[in-house]
Amino acid sequence: MATTNGYLGVTPPIATTESSDREKEVTVTLMEELRRQGTFESEEEAKTREIVLGRIAALVQKFVRTVAISRGMSESAATAAGGKIFTFGSYRLGVHGPGSDIDTLCVVPKHVSREDFFDVFEAMVKEADGVTEASGVPDAYVPIIKVKISGIPIDLVMARLALSAIPETLSLQDDNLLRNLDERCVRSLNGSRVTDEILRLVPNVAVFRDSLRCIKLWAQRRAIYSNVNGFLGGVAWAMLVARICQLYPNAIAGAIVSRFFIIMYQWSWPQPVLLKQIEDGPLPVRVWNPKLYPADRAHRMPIITPAYPSMCATHNVTSSTQMIMTEEFKKGSEIVDRVIVGTASWSELFAKHDFFHKYRYYLQVIASTGSAELQIKWSGTVESRLRQLVMKLEYVDTLALAHPFIKGFEQISYCLTDEEVRAVAQGEISDAVAKRKKEDTEGKEGASAVYSTTFYIGLAIEPKQPGAVGPRKLDISYPTTEFSKLVKMWEKFDDSTMGIVVRHIKSTALPDYVFDEGERQPRSALKRPKNGKGADKNNNTSPDVPNKKRRLVQQPIVTVFPNAMPGMLHRSSNSVSESLSSMPSSTQPLKMTQNGSATVEPSASSSLYPASVKDPAQLRSPQLPFGENVAVATGAGSS
After folding, report:
1. 392: buried, middle or exposed (CB in 10 Å: 19+, 13-18, 0-12)?
2. Which of 333, 352, 371 is the last residue of a domain?
3. Residue 585 known to bind ligand
4. 210 and 292 share a domain?
5. Among residues 169, 196, 223, which one ends one of the domains?
6. Contact 191, 132 (CB under 8 A)
7. pLDDT value at position 636?
8. Are residues 382 and 451 in the same domain?
9. pLDDT of 258-285, one tens digit each?
10. Residues 100, 116, 196, 216: which is the catalytic one?
11. DSSP 576-638
């Protein structure tokens, strides 16, 4: 696809030359490595996906017909009402891997409501052959039904168009289809519209797919693939790769990946990444515009969707997650540079993250309930608000950075007593409970199951100022109590069935389940030499953190426990919130004071996140291989 200017994108290409022989060689080895890493699905799984999608398409038409008849329409009119599905996300982009889900949009006519989707269609899906899981989340930002059919996970969203029938030939490219739709339908439609527009805006779809498959695997392995936790989601990563493809329209995957890391490390944020100029449309809806909207000006790494109405796909990025991604871009560029010159292999790029080895202190956020179905909703609610906790932590004076991990760890604990239930809800799982199985509790009075999801945030401590002596205070009482209040504001929160705990622990107290088999954090933290020598000099670099605001009110509560759980004894309101000083010593990395703050003992591993920040005094940026104009690449010519 070419624009009126003869090129794709908002600026001319940086280079239109073919890739070098060496870049062609490393592209071959890249694709070999991606196959070794298991990023491609088998032919059998691909065929199963096609069969499952065909069944979903037929089920949607049956659903539309059923609802139409219930509304009093004739048999012929109900059949003619149609209904159609569109895939989007990684499957539509052609970069999905084994076991990945299929994002699927169900487009229905105007007589079908969202309530029908969750009442009628969800029930039909649950009764279909081969369905092993089906769960609707009608209150989500984009309402969704998650199902698994014949082993294939599918995320179903719905859009109701202002049409009496949905023809088989329907295309979603027409902006006028968005007329008279509610915001949720617009968001659902745009998932498909954005994916299709990305594919239309890249010069070579095959090169784009190979490059994106590489970047996607890298981001997942480095634990920076998560929109909800403040990193980038699949669409945002796709748009970044698409932009590099526009800048190098004749390059192959190895060259695209190499330039991706160099350019993204040096990108002039908050200069937006655009695949085309932002367009006006027929609707009175908000389009991303930092000149008009203060909230848009606050976006740290704006990556703008190309389909109308253009939105920022990265509004969740925080100061901490931006620093983490920037450092990963730099590391990636260094590894790929060594791959190009032949001193490293692609496997080094896909090395697993070291999140649980990186910090001395961590926050545990534990969401718990007494039922599997309720836990899905409660843990999802807590996870969706974790970013707010991270942003509040960023303003704590002694913290350099708050690093959220991209997923929670789920557990089911079978308890025999109220005391065990309380302990599990607080993150204390004894060996006896950990080894206990469901059948061990069957028929026993007072037995109950506790479903818990634990999220982690790494805490990077600011280095001590020269000449400072003694321990320092780390007061996180304000952000943790504010976060607890925030999650409890959920309209469906019930303190008799839901628990939320926030507490900090040492790296030596991390549970075994966060590590792979054979991997374990050393049990004793390294001590910093008294003369200050011997530490990694990179660890002494001070991250560029936001200005810290001193809180007017600091509350003593750091850990918040649930009032009750199924089978748990109700406690008085005075015992609901407890100081960390009451926790076992293994979870007490910080010395608590009476006002709820903590003291930090000097230690080499308690220093800050070991990131090389963009300090002009020590910055040496990676360079593009042929002296290309980096200013163009970093968006200086974009608007």
Report:
1. buried
2. 352
3. no
4. yes
5. 196
6. no
7. 55
8. yes
9. 999 999 999 999 999 999 999 988 788 8
10. 216
11. TEE-GGGS-GGG--SEE-TTS-EEE---GGGS--------TTT------TT---HHHHTTTT-
Q: Which of 455, 387, 458, 393 has the alpha carbon at shortest distance from 231?
A: 387
90 is catalytic: yes
Q: 437, exposed or middle or buried, with CB in 10 Å at 0-12, 13-18, 19+? A: exposed
The predicted-structure confidence for 356-399, as pLDDT tens digits, reads as follows 999 999 999 999 999 998 998 899 999 999 999 999 999 998 89
Higher pLDDT, 512 or 208: 208
pLDDT in tens, 39-86: 999 999 999 999 999 999 999 999 999 999 999 999 999 999 999 999
Q: What's the whole-number average pLDDT of the chain?
A: 84
Q: What are phi and psi of 619, to 5 degrees?
A: -85, 130
The tokens 């990395």 sit on which residue? 589
Residue 280 bears catalytic tag: no
Q: Which residues contact 74 (CB under 8 A, 6 or more apart)?
A: none
Q: Please check if 88 is assigned to a binding site.
A: yes
103 is catalytic: yes
State the CATH number of the domain containing residue 96: 3.30.460.10
Domain range for 449 is 355-463+476-514
**CATH number, domain at 278?**
1.10.1410.10
Beta partners for 548? Answer: none
Residue 527 in domain: no
Give pLDDT tens digits for 580-629.
222 333 333 344 343 334 445 444 333 334 333 344 334 456 677 777 77
Is the backbone peptide bond immediately before 309 cis, with ω within 30 degrees of 0?
A: yes
Q: For residues 325 and 633, give the distance between their C-alpha atoms in angstroms, rounded to a whole number.
A: 18
Residue 280 marked ligand-binding: no
